[in-house]
Amino acid sequence: MTTSIPTPTKRELAEASMRRSWFPVARLCDLDKPQTATLLGVSLVIYRDGEGRISVQSRRCPHRGGDLSMGEVHQSSIGCPYHGWEFSSADGSCSRIPSLADQGKIPPRASIATYPAVERFGHVWTVLEDPIRDLYEIEEWQGLDLEWLAADPIDSSVGVGVTIENFRDVAHFPFVHKVSMGPTPEVVEPLNVNRDGLDVWMDRPLDAGSGDWANDGDCMMRYRCSAPGLASITYHYEKLGRRVVAGFPSPIDYEHVKIFWGVANEVGYRGADLEECLRVEEMVYLEDIPIVEFIEPREIPWDSEYQEFSVPADLFTLNYRRSFTELMNRVEDGSHVNQFV
Q1: 196 and 115 together in one domain
Q2: Looking at the domain assignment, is residue 250 inside a domain?
Q3: Where are the beta strands (DSSP E) in 174-332?
Q4: What is the pLDDT of residues 226-260, one digit of tens each?
């Protein structure tokens, strides 16, 4: 008798693809003490040990369930606050049990899961399973000396896909961003959108208008997103240089994200400083949140469980969905990236 294997739904593929993609879990500037994160239901502790190594590990002590984020960081380990068991920052193996007279009797399987830890864009990034994509490399940032300022993360009760679509949508500006952007046209011009695999981009001029964005004048913007979870705008001012805002929603679960984000200025940028750029961009983020949190469904309806209609202004969104679908296809066909970055 042959047992058929059920075909996974697109939602299941979307979640599986995110478990094999890179997400930020902490800001580098916060690692003076252990940080906590939940990534797709997995509870993590992130810390820098006494040797300077950054570790991303399971937060639960396997002895009696203590929360390691409350423990003490040692030279090359982290200790549990409950009974002091120590776990190596390199591989998660138990390296010391204070109550044992003979440390040679440490249970050989006593360990905590340890995940890759990569520093990029002012944040610590990790991946839960064998990655199917590299950590993001942004073409327009190549060769630029960027100075990053990581913002306070923002909690948002929607999924990664809905969050990225909100970042990259331009038709909502006149209705949601009246304060930060000032009056903007309701009619959206034809969009020249490009896609190459997991990456989607378009160029669009910025008319600074009368909002808080007006201080630095007009510029050309490169909008970009990359599946599953990076969205950026690179502003190119002819006389000032380049600056960046980028968002990296990290899924606490399938329908709930913590938005890590930040701004960067090209070294020598002659416009507003990083703190002012962050202030202006944060206005935009915080205008979005009250609207986005009531979107239904809270994640892209991959299995067409909700009816949707699209117009030409949605061209960037539709191409992002194609890029995400390509990522899901990598899960189905078993392709993967063999090396951690």
Answers
A1: no
A2: yes
A3: 193-196, 199-206, 219-226, 230-237, 241-253, 256-266
A4: 999 999 999 999 889 999 999 999 999 999 999 99
Cα–Cα distances (Å) from 254 to 2, 156, 304, in that order, read 33, 12, 17
Kindly indicate the confidence band of residue 197, based on its pLDDT and cuts at 50, 70 and 90: very high
pLDDT grade for 315, boundaries at 50, 70 and 90: very high
Dump the DSSP string for 277-323.
HHHHHHHHHHHHHHHHTT-SSSS--TT--S-----GGGHHHHHHHHH
> Domains in the chain: how many in total?
2
Question: Is residue 251 domain-shared with residue 121, that is, in the same domain?
Answer: no
Q: How confident is the model at residue 262 (pLDDT cuts 50, 70, 90)?
A: very high
Same domain flag for 57 and 155: no
Domain that holds residue 275: 139-333
Please say if the pLDDT value at position 272 is more than 70: yes
Rounded to the nearest 5 degrees, what angle is found at the Cα of 194, between the Cα atoms of 190 and 198? Answer: 140
Tally of CB atoms within 10 A around 272: 17
Prediction pTM value = 0.93
Q: What is the 3-state secondary structure (H, E, C) of 76-111?
A: CEEECCCCCCEEECCCCEEEECCCCCCHHHCCCCCE
Burial label for 47, CB within 10 Å (0-12, 13-18, 19+), is buried
> For residue 220, what is the domain's CATH number?
3.90.380.10
* Start-to-end CA span in the chain (Å): 44
